[in-house]
Design goal:
about 0% helix; about 40% strand; Jelly Rolls; 4-stranded antiparallel beta sheet; 2 domains; about 475 residues; single chain; Tachylectin-2, Chain A; 10-stranded mixed beta sheet; mainly beta
Amino acid sequence: MIRVILFSVLFCSTLVVGQPIGSRVELFVDQSLVESMENVELHLHQPVKAPRPKSPLPSNHYITVIKAADKFQAWWRGYDRSFTGKEGSGSGGETVCYAESIDGHEWHFPELGLCEVEGSVKNNVILANRPQFLHNFVPFLDIRPGVANERKYKALAGHPGPGNKQTMDVTGRGLYSFFSPDGIHWEQGNEVIPYRQEWRHAFDSANVSFWSEAEKQYVCYFRTWTDPDNLRSVSRTTSKDFIKWSDPVAMNPNLPGEHLYTSQTHAYFRAPHIYVALPTRYVKGRGDDAGGAASERNATDILLMSTRAGSETYDRLFTEAFIRPGLSPQRWKNRANYVALGVHPTGPAEMSIYHRSGDRYVLRTDGFISARAGAKAGELITKEIVFAGSDLFLNLSTSAVGEARVEIQNLDGNPFPGFELENCQALFGDGVSLKIEWKSSDADLASLAGEAVRLRFVLKECDLYSYRFGDAPN
């Protein structure tokens, strides 16, 4: 009867006993499931630059990378150098370009013959000559069950133009929908997220959207400006049909005086209930103006944030840079540091982040933040959780003398018989899905599925990146 009651209120905000995690992967990008830590600290891991591809993505703004079933796809903003009209954001000279990759490292730029640019159709341009829409065209692969094939890819786009919109007519200045069967051939839809008169400025950056498996609706994280301090920031809106969207909510992740130029918020591929964000932090007056105007003297770097499905706030366990500009002088120039929308698996234990410079950065799978213990053993105890499955798998890395042990406790903090710490076999090594085991013949983990339990991790010289219950490694 207890199990029935627990699962009948899985999504009730007043749930006290047991947060339902089922068999999903849980990371340490926030502390929503952490009750306490002793001699354990959360550690931010910096991505490492991979060897430069022979055929990298070009250096450009607002890149999107998608991993489809059989290939990687990329889109970015280009420019028609033969355009003679007025230059600037939202101008007629902006284009959208396309590339593909089999391995996520080397890229192919197909001649598509769709748009004449600089006097030729022998190019990889998929959209051109559409002022207002190509400055910030951000596509996604729609995974909603039953989505029509001709609308398998969707995008939002729209640039409102310069100036304070509170004194302007905002009709038609919002975000418009686009649809495609393949990510190459696009049909423009209607304005779906209108501009609001009370906004000073909005939408003039990458506005990201996707179908949320966890929320069973579309979500969009878009550019707004805070009031009254006019900081670049992020708001959120949702939709059941990609047509009618909810009233936007300002998420306000900024520190005092901090500009967040993009958000790049998306569902993490191994844990779609967790949304990872890799915003660009924009710092006025700190960069290299290359002998130009002082307004171009702006430094940037990349941060790490997260938010969970349905949340209207971001978690920022670390406020320092996730990816620094680095040694190259080019990376200290104006707006030189953006990463593509999307973190994707590119190896059995590797995931990749794509930088606008054409560089690819790698981390181990789930490797954003770990629970780390040093030479002195420490412990981390979770809040009450309700799991599904018959095994527990850990993503961890230990030293030669390091190890991890797990005790499973009831709500009073007492171990279940057979799952005491002394009955747990020490787990050591390095792997993304290592099975933890207990010595006792009474230790049938499936017998605890559906119960409210706590996990007590005891770690020594160990980084624990994530954990997951289930019936087999994933």
